[in-house]
Amino acid sequence: MSESGFIAAVDVGRMPSEDLAALLRVSSMLASTLDLPSIMQTAITSACELMDLETGAIYLLDGSTLVLQATAPPTPPDFPDMYRRAPLQDHPHIARCLIGRDPIFVEDSSKETMSPAEAGICEARGLRSILYVPLVVDAVSAGAFIMGSIGRAKEMGKTDVDLCRTLAHQISLAINNAQLHDSLLDANTHLARAYDETLAGWALALEMRDHETRGHSDRVERLTMQLAAEMGIPREQWDHVRRGTLLHDIGKMGVPDAILQKPGPLTDDEWAIMRTHPQKAREMLGSIDFLAPALDIPYCHHERWDGTGYPRGLAGDAIPLAARIFSVVDVYDALTSDRHYRPGWSRQQALDYIRQETGLQFDPRVVEAFFSLIGEAERGSGLETVP
Q1: Computed from CA positions of residues 115, 112, 3, 12, in that sequence, does the dihedral angle turn out positive or negative?
Q2: pTM score, whole prediction
Q3: For 287-333, what is each residue's pLDDT tens digit?
Q4: Which candidate, 141, 150, 138, 49, places its Cα nearest to that of 104?
């Protein structure tokens, strides 16, 4: 093959069985993760081993800039920044392989016309023979991996041609899968953030409509999450608990203002309507897949440990733990806050009430953890101070 020549077409069917077995191993390793940095490192290390070359690097395109992703062996900490990000135009051999979507082989860099940037890399890495291989993702040239021999010239035969082409295809597939996965995660993260901002707005609107003390939802959210962590609710459920806390009274949107904002005591008929708000919350949120896992608190926080609560009269451990936790926090914050129909209780009065209702309204284990949390906050452990 001539120096700086374009490599011919793939013929995988004629590959030796040991090369096919090696490709299968590499393919399996690349498919074992969706972590893009891990894929890059596995890819370039495996490529150098398969091609019997001592060093290599993978670059991806960011617009018209080449961005270094991984090297074999790893670059030293003082590797020049000019080689980590560089204009594509400074590396004409890479540009040619990307434009033609064909590998390019330089048998002896000392005899090849190289740009200053290319010559600098050859000198820094001691490169002699160099193989430039394009990475094509969704029919677009996305980057390249470069492999080279150090101190020796290497010939490139037909088997090597087929091997590098097939390897490039496997690496491109792995990169594409990882990028799609990362894009999906980013999209889901943005969507979740948008949902949560919307929920916070709903919570504020409910406070204003119910004439609750401003900040009630924020306060009960912070303390509920601390108590949830203390009581061992798994981390993967924390977002559901937090959303349920923000939406604990969402069902009151279906309660008439005349009842919700009544300054005096409610009649029996009015109480019957007020007590429908957990069921209304279930009807509102249950049909939203994103919010259905957060239903435990809006639907069950008026259940009582002794089974005399509503809407279903659940008792003991049949009440979801998140709802048992929230009920203690919610009552504490409600009692210590001024409302339009009464002034707030003192902190000690509220704690005495919770103690009296232990085993009746409240789960004794939750109350014990709550009192422990309050004590730690007072001792300055770094927990949120209870208002």
Answers
A1: negative
A2: 0.53
A3: 778 788 899 999 999 999 999 999 999 999 999 999 999 999 999 99
A4: 141
| Domain membership of residue 104 as a residue range | 5-182
State how far the alpha carbon of 139 is from the alpha carbons of 39, 48, 63, 117, in Å.
Answer: 20, 25, 16, 28
Residues 308 and 251 in one domain: yes
- Among 131, 164, 182, the domain-final residue is 182
Q: How would you label 135-164 residue by residue, b for 16+ Cβ within 10 Å and e otherwise?
A: bbbeeebbbbbbbbbeeeebebeeebbbbb
The total number of structural domains that make up the chain: 2
How far is C-alpha 159 from the geometric centre of its chain's CA atoms?
42
Q: Tell the residue number behind the tokens 């069902």, with chain if given.
A: 251
Residue 62 belongs to a domain: yes
Contacts of 375 (CB under 8 A, 6+ apart): none
Residue 217 belongs to a domain with what CATH number? Answer: 1.10.3210.10
- C-alpha dihedral over 264, 213, 352, 325, to 10 degrees? 110
SS3 content of the chain, % helix, strand, coil (to 5): 55, 15, 30
Helix, strand or coil, per DSSP, at residue 98? helix
Between CA 362 and CA 303 the distance in angstroms is 9
